[in-house]
Amino acid sequence: MNIDVIGSGSIGMLMAAKLLQTPYHVHLWTRSEQAAAVIRNRGIVLHTTDHQNQHVYHCPCSSMELIVEQDEILAGQQEEWYAIIAVKQTHIHDQFLEQLDRLARLRRYRAIMVIQNGVGHVRKIASIMAMPIISVVTSEGAKRQGLNEVVHAGSGTTVLGDELGRDKARYYQKKLGNALEIAGFTVFVSKNIKEHIYRKLMLNAVINPLTALFNVMNGELPESSTRLVLMKQLFQESKEILLEEEPALAACTFDEVLGICQATAANTSSMRADVLAGRRTEIASINGAIATIAATNKKNAPLNESMVHIIEALHPENKE
């Protein structure tokens, strides 16, 4: 079994490092040649949660921006290839989709897994690919340090499933899930992955924008009574909207939000990290997606819409 891990962010590097401990052949793909060169030369450095131990894993690494130059090397390969797409939603643009399509044709992928926050990415990728696309929701904690180092910040669970119904026999879900289990992840195959996607979307819609807005760690967010009121209101609005799409969310309570804040107390949310680093955030595919679902169902989403406007005002192109 051969696996392309596409994306060298925190989750991509964690997945690659863990899979490199299995008998599988792993090839890591980065956005830039600079990152690819560093990883080729130094390997992936995986730190344990307590920072007491680290291991270095070497693997082939290439840049997606130079995919055209890989045509001759990759063409004609007959091995069984799969892909794990671990880039952020903001990176799934037309150029990336063209690169991914080229790579998928050269590799002749049997199936791909996608790991992103928010919603909308699966249908974008499905529009150019007819193969099974397996959606993944994970609570694994990872933090990238530099171009080739990642800290496994905390173990979690990884749930996968077929949102589009292209893997009716669940063959690829089980096969890819088994590969992740061999790599050391705790994996569950769900018959209703949409419930897990929307549950994480709802939790992210509260924690991500508010930690970015108030510039606090996850554990600090509920410590202010004023912030707590806003958290509850944003949660309730998001839940009411998403219940229209997924009734199973009725069992989800605000205590889950508080539990995530406590379990990841020392973590910086990805949205806060993006704002601090001067990058575009995934706000459009999280709170923006909830606002879109609300509009589709003729509902209002004033808090989610406000979060979109506020966080987008912090994007580098909108700062004066």
UniProtKB/TrEMBL annotation:
Pathway: Cofactor biosynthesis; (R)-pantothenate biosynthesis; (R)-pantoate from 3-methyl-2-oxobutanoate: step 2/2. InterPro entries: 6-PGluconate_DH-like_C_sf, 6PGD_dom2, ApbA, Ketopantoate_reductase, KPA_reductase, KPR_N, NAD(P)-bd_dom_sf. Its EC number is 1.1.1.169. Residues 192-313 form the Ketopantoate reductase C-terminal domain. The keyword Coiled coil does not apply. Transmembrane segments: none annotated. Keywords: NADP, Oxidoreductase, Pantothenate biosynthesis. Pfam families: ApbA, ApbA_C. Residues 5-162 form the Ketopantoate reductase N-terminal domain. It is an enzyme of class 1 (oxidoreductase). The keyword Membrane does not apply. Catalyzes the NADPH-dependent reduction of ketopantoate into pantoic acid. This is 2-dehydropantoate 2-reductase. It comes from Paenibacillus septentrionalis.
